[in-house]
TrEMBL record:
Gene Ontology CC terms, in alphabetical order: endoplasmic reticulum; mitochondrial fatty acid beta-oxidation multienzyme complex; mitochondrial inner membrane; mitochondrial outer membrane
Pfam families: Thiolase_C, Thiolase_N
Higher taxonomy: Eukaryota, Metazoa, Cnidaria, Anthozoa, Hexacorallia
Full protein name: Trifunctional enzyme subunit beta, mitochondrial
Origin: domain of life: Eukaryota
Amino acid sequence: MGHFYFSAKFSGGRNVVLVEGVRTPFLMSGTSYADLMPHDLQRGALQGLITKTGIDPGVVDYVCIGTVIQEVKTSNIAREAALGAGFPEKVPSHTVTMACISSNQAISSGVSMIAAGQIDSCVAGGVEFMSDVPIRFSRPLRKTLLSLNKAKTLGARLSLLSRLRPSFLAPELPAVAEFSTGEVMGHSADRLASAFHVSRQEQDEYALRSHTLAHQATQAGKLTDVLSYQVPGTTTVLSADNGIRVSTPQQMAKLKPAFIRPFGTITAANSSFLTDGASACLVMCEEKALSMGLKPKAYLRDYVYVSQDPKDQLLLGPAYATPKLLEKTGLKLSDIDVFEFHEAFAGQILANMKALDSDWFSQNYMGRSSKVGAPPMEKLNTWGGSLSIGHPFGATGVRLVTTAANRLNEVGGKYGLVAACAAGGLGHAMIVERYPS
């Protein structure tokens, strides 16, 4: 087993543990959560965490929540959700955004504060609500309305109104494209799959695997992080994800390319879907958790963040972060018992696997003498992944970390490795170590 230096060097002897992680069911946007607001979902995840752990919210020192497309009315959604969930007003809360690794950042922010001795406990989480996104007036109309608000005379107001044009009324939707490149992520994924020679058949097979494994895990009761969640204002109680669809290769092959037509390989069937959902986890210093009689699931060990060219290497975060983290911790690929990699697209995850398994890529792009190798499939996302379970941007990181801990406890493994890509060419990886029984 590789040498591990984390607790001695990174945290000055303070071990940081994951006590518990939960999430609302992840639902396809526009379904049963459609009439809610994002803080409703995040509040539900926080309340579910309190109930499951049995902790008094007053013992929590800090709340950190990740989100991507913010609801402007609750710009610090961590604060609003925490207050709504019953956390005392004395508990500070802040919101982080780092695209698809926002709740990864929420967790690592908590880990760092605990390791530094600033706090003893943190609730980290994330939420995304794609059923309702902020749509703005056009900028010319906004400027006119703001000026109108300041105009003091009727003449000044009429003068401003006379400048309005029909074109001003066109709404602005949140950008689905990279700001720096103007390219949508699906287009980038298509080019990435092509660059690494990932075929349409490989992608469809991987997507089918994800949905099949998620279905099997759900049926077997393994997804214990999923809460029973009563939709506010209704009698509806949900306890399962609704985007898991076990199709057939024949049905999947019928779908047309979604981004690059007619020759692209990314389709609706091998991509993650727009998802509503929230997650939350309790992270503590080990001594505090044990003094309260809590049984941790895992140690949260070391982590890294990486970033690359947002055009040609937008989604290669796991390929860069995995070797960097293994080298930093002194672990080998063979030391890892459980891999939880974010699945944005089947083409993306398979391209990362091929990059990790390529000496040429490692030498030419990462400055390494040789490859570290790709995770064996029998250790990768064996309970499904973002393609099937869903991907609420801000919430996925907590799901990955919690699932890695739960899988380690099921198989009796020692180390798990979580990795994810994110918009902007960003990436993250973290080592999770099973807590000894």
